[in-house]
């Protein structure tokens, strides 16, 4: 009997719940139009808020699923992350750099030549870093490639810059590096791809570059594996988008303002 009574109670509870749902549905079905309009407008407000949050978070970097590196970018804005036992000496590799080789603070930049946020860092932040820290011997900035595969011009540009560096060391590398970011703006700040023809035209404009030797290097594709190594080293170190920076073991994501870099650098200099 007890089992029968329990089944009866459960059945009655389910019946009451169903009646309650039907009552609620009927209530909203016949609700005043103003009430329905309020619900509709409320839904729009939530949707617009989601868009604003997404756009606000997309101001500083292109971030990807580094496991696949083939998805559409989403935004990110991150301050310095804690150290995670990164071997800075290995991370520096043999890539081109600005500043004193023995500087107490090392910044490794992982960048994409077609990324508009990387160009923003080059325009807005790098000049101040050079003036206060790089040119004064306090910081060494190492540039490494992180070409995203939805930027078709990025990997060829990275190889082109490596060939320039082969002909004239750090000075020629960064002359070509600056040329690419300068010209990028004329192509829609990274939204329009550039290829071999544009890179060859730019190479001819770099003062002191032996164009014949550069072209031979570029067309051989000899630096393709070097660029891929940069990308994989960045992924292994925890870089998830461009631009990404590692400052004495700390990750800074995105084209952050100068003050963000200054805070991390000054803290590292105090340890010297």
How are the SSEs ordered, and which strands pair?
Layout: H1 2-29, H2 33-56, E1 62-63, H3 88-92, E2 97-99, E3 105-111, H4 116-124, H5 126-134, E4 139-145, H6 154-184, H7 196-205, H8 211-220, H9 224-237, E5 241-242, E6 244-247, E7 250-253, H10 258-269
Parallel strand pairs: 3-4
Antiparallel strand pairs: 1-5, 2-4, 3-6, 6-7
Q: What is the molecular shape?
A: globular
How many discrete structural domains?
A: 2
Helix content: 55-70%
Please report the distance between the alpha carbons of the first and last residues: 82 Å
Described by strand count, sense and barrel closure, the largest sheet is: 5 strands, mixed
Radius of gyration: 27 Å
**CATH class division of the largest domain:** Alpha Beta
Query: How many E strands?
Result: 7
Which structural class is indicated by helix and strand composition? alpha+beta
| CATH level-4 homologous superfamily of the largest domain | Glutaredoxin
> What is the fold named in CATH at topology level of the largest domain?
Glutaredoxin
Unreliable stretches (pLDDT < 50, length at least 5) are 1-8, 28-58, 65-78
């Amino acid at each position: 009997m007890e089992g029968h009574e329990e089944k009866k109670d459960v059945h009655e509870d389910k019946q009451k719940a169903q009646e309650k749902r039907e009552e609620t549905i009927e209530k909203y079905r016949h609700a005043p139009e103003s009430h329905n309009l309020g619900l509709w407008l409320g839904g729009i407000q939530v949707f617009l808020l989601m868009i604003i949050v997404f756009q606000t978070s997309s101001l500083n970097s292109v971030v990807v699923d580094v496991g696949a590196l083939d998805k559409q970018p989403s935004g990110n804005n991150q301050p310095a992350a804690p150290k995670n036992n990164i071997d800075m000496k290995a991370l520096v590799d043999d890539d081109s750099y600005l500043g004193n080789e023995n500087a107490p603070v090392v910044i490794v930049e992982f960048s994409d030549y077609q990324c508009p946020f990387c160009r923003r860092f080059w325009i807005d932040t790098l000049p101040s870093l050079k003036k206060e820290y790089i040119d004064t011997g306090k910081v060494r900035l190492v540039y490494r490639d992180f070409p995203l595969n939805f930027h078709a011009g990025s990997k060829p540009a990275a190889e082109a810059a490596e060939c320039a560096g082969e002909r004239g060391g750090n000075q020629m590398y960064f002359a070509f590096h600056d040329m690419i970011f300068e010209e990028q703006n004329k192509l829609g700040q990274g939204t329009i791809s550039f290829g071999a023809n544009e890179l060859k035209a730019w190479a001819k404009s770099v003062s002191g570059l032996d164009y014949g030797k550069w072209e031979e290097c570029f067309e051989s594709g000899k630096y393709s594996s070097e660029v891929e190594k940069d990308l994989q080293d960045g992924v292994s170190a925890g870089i998830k988008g461009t631009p990404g920076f590692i400052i004495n073991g700390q990750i800074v994501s995105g084209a952050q303002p100068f003050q963000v870099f200054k805070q991390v650098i000054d803290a590292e200099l105090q340890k010297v």
